[in-house]
Amino acid sequence: xxxxxKTWLLKIxxxxxxxxxxxxxxxxxxxxxxxxxxxxxxxxxAGLRNALHPQIELIPGPGCPVCVCPEEDIYxxxxxxxxxxxxxxxxxxxxxxxxxxxxxxxxTLQQAKASGADIRAxxxxxxxxxxxxxxxGKQIVFFAAGFETTTAPIAGLIAxxxxxxxxxxxxxxxxxxAVAMLLNTGPPGFDALIAPGxxxxxxxxxxxKFVVEKHHLPTAVAGFNTESxxxxxxxxxxxxxxxxxxxxxxxxxxxxxxxxxxAQTQLDQSMDIIDANWRGxxxxxxxxxxxxxxxxxxxxRLIFPHYNEQARRHIGAMPPGCxxxxxxxxxxxxxQCKLYGTACTPKEPIGPCMVSDEGACHIWWTQGVxx
Length: 371
Known about the structure:
Elements: H1 5-16, H2 19-25, E1 30-36, H3 37-45, H4 48-51, E2 56-63, H5 65-68, H6 71-83, E3 86-91, H7 109-114, E4 119-122, H8 125-134, E5 139-146, H9 148-160, E6 166-172, H10 176-184, E7 192-196, H11 197-203, H12 209-213, E8 219-222, H13 226-242, E9 247-250, H14 261-270, E10 271-278, E11 282-291, H15 300-303, H16 324-328, H17 360-366
Parallel strand pairs: 1-2, 1-7, 3-4, 3-5, 5-6, 7-8, 8-9
Antiparallel strand pairs: 10-11
C-alpha cells in the first residue's frame, strides 16, 4: 500500500518521540546527509526541514557536478571558445560559473559568448551531435561536466557513432568516490546517508553497500518525490534505532541492485576511470571519466593541448572568501558562508554553489533562506 507524505511525516516524528529514540539520541541531532543536489532541491521546495522533527538535521552533500567541476577546465573551455574557430556547447548551468581571473577579464562562458565566441547551451548530448551534423566544416567541442547520470548518455552517443568533427572536453565524475573520501578521512560528520536515485538507476544500488558494510552507517537510496525521500529518512532512522543496518532501496520503481547493465557496458567501452580533480577538494582517486585510447581523436584536450594549463591547478580553487568546498563536503551550511547573500547571489554568483539549481547555495537562496 502506498503511503502518502503526511503519513510518512507522522511516522518519522512519532519515531523520534519514542522512548527508544530519546534513550539513544538524547538531545543530540540525528544528522542525515543527502548526496544528490536534486534531493536537496526537493527537500527545500517541499519545506521538509521545517516539517520534520527538529532533532533531524539534513545535510547537503557533494552531488552538484557544476560545483565540483575544476576551475581549470572551465578556463580551458573559455579560452578554446575565444581563440579557436570552433563551436563550443555545454549544459546551460556551466555558462555562468566564474573562474579566478583579474577584474575586467572574461570570467564565464556567458561573458565569452557576449564577446563573440560561438557558445551554445544544450540540454542533451543529442543536441551536440545535431549541431556537429549541421556544421560539418567546423569542429564542435562538447564541454561535458556531470556525474554518471549525464555521462552514460554521452557513452551511448559514442556507441551509436558520432561525427568526426565532434570533440569532447570531458569533466565527468563518479559520485561514490567523493563519499568514500569523506568517510575515509576521519569520523563522518553525519549519522546516515541518502544515496542518489538517478545515479543508482544507472550504476545500481549495490554501489552504495560499502557505506553500510565498511563504515556501518544506515543507508537508503531515494527518489526525488517527497514520499520516497521521507521513506528513506524513516528507514535510516529506524535502522539506527534497531541497530540493524542494511542498504534500503526506497526507489524501486527505477533502481535495481545492479543498475542499467547496458549503460554500464557503454561506459566501460568508451571511457576509462582516472584520478580526477574536484574543485576546492583536490584529487580523488578513481573518480573521473576519460575517453579511451581508441576515441582519442575526439579528445579536445589532445587536439588543443596548449590550452591545458597545469599551472592553473594552483589558482583553480574556490574564489577568496568562498566556502563552496566546505558546503559541498557537508562541513558548512550555505548561509554560514560570509559571502552568502551579500557579495554572492544567483544574479551575481561568486562561487559555483550559487550558480546551479543543484548547488546548495542557489537552492537555499531561491527557497527564501536569507538569514
